[in-house]
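W.,

You were right to be curious about this one. When I first looked at the sequence I had no strong expectations either way, so I just let the prediction run and decided to look at it fresh. Below is the sequence, 474 residues in total, followed by the output.
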Amino acid sequence: MDRSSKSLMESIISPIEVVEECQIAPCCDSPESATKFSLPLTFFDIIWLKFNPSERVYFYQPTESSSSPEFFYRVILPKLKQSLSVTLCHFLPLAGRLTWPSHASKPSIHYVPNDTVSLTVAESDADFNRLSSNDIRDTIESRPYVPELQIADSTSPVIALQITLFPDSGYSIGYSTHHATLDGRSITLFMKAWAHICREPESDLPQELTPSFDRTVVKDPEGLDMVYSNHWIEISKTLAPDTDPRSVKPFPGESITKSKLFRATFVLTGEDIKRLRDWVLSIETIVDQLRLSSFVLTYAYTLVCIVESMGEEKVSWVHFIFASDCRTRLDSHSIPKNYFGNCIYGYDGFVDAKALMDKNGVILMAKKISELVKEANCCGLEGAKEALEKWTSGKPKTLTIGIAGSPRFELYEVDFGWGRPKKVEVISIDKNRGIAMERSRDGDGGIEVGVVLEKHEMEVFASLFVNGLKELHY
């Protein structure tokens, strides 16, 4: 590699300069903040213990007068820091640590007074518009804008945050969270609460943005918390024999720097989804058994395009999985919408990849996903004891595709006072090649889809995805 190529690669991999590493403490006088406490994990948390951290970045492009470095350091950054400190008073467990001591049967979150959240402040000379676009680019380019969660064997922060200034262009807010501590709805609740307090510092936090940490609302008569804890202990002895089996470290994902993966965002507009639904209904006769929601259609269409882009030589079976929010769906009892932690359960199935490459592959996939959605809407936990064992053992040449995010989160409503995000992106799908979903910023009922593939696969996928939608409009 010549010097110019090496310099270009270094600028892509590390285009940021760290300005400040700081610790943000909760700023409040509540009795809880002065008292240490422990928050036990439930089976909804423990099932995700060894999954990779969840990482997301919000890109903001304020008005020209608000995007200068002087305004950022004088106004925006101080307000973000101060409102974060106040917000943490309502979300004290975020300042705590996930631990699994050798004497404990399962992990828990521990908070002690003066615990803090790590916040990195950085500057970047990278192309803000490129990073916040839907364009195809190397996954390495987006990595610098989410902080690394410093996870040790027996302990981990719950969250780490990073604010990055792109001088005269905009700024980003990225986070990394341990998957066993909170789910997408919970982290979105925190981000919306932080934005609200930053935007309206004199107002009280609305009830719908105030978290509930009551673990007694999660019933576990079958002892799934211990089933999952023991499963991770046993599988760790095989997959990570050199570590403590009670380690809270996730199992390694794909090697980001060696796998040559690329990311891009594609959009299904509201009109695209309507036409896709009409097409399915024009062919499928048993329509009363299908739930052709925007989620089902988007997942089915995207997954089929991915399988076709990879080809039969790589994929024989497709293992599809998505997580359903169980807060208001459990048969036995209800859990508040503002419950903070994990309250999601995964639903999955297998399908022959060759069948998806048929001209009606999207319809077949929509049927399969629709069947799972019916089960998820009741939040049935049948087979829960064997779930982890099934997820961690697969067939040869199996492509596992899961969903990160949800169109229901409305991430583009997270406004700190200088406008809505220009782009929100799930970074962590580069470790498992999942699909990210979010409601379109345009508000037309469409859905943004983030995918990660090898370069030639991405090129084929883009052609299939775009041209397939064009055909629906003729």
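Here's what jumped out at me. The two ends are 48 Å apart (CA to CA). And, maybe more interesting for your project: The chain has a mean pLDDT of 89.

Coffee later to discuss?

I.
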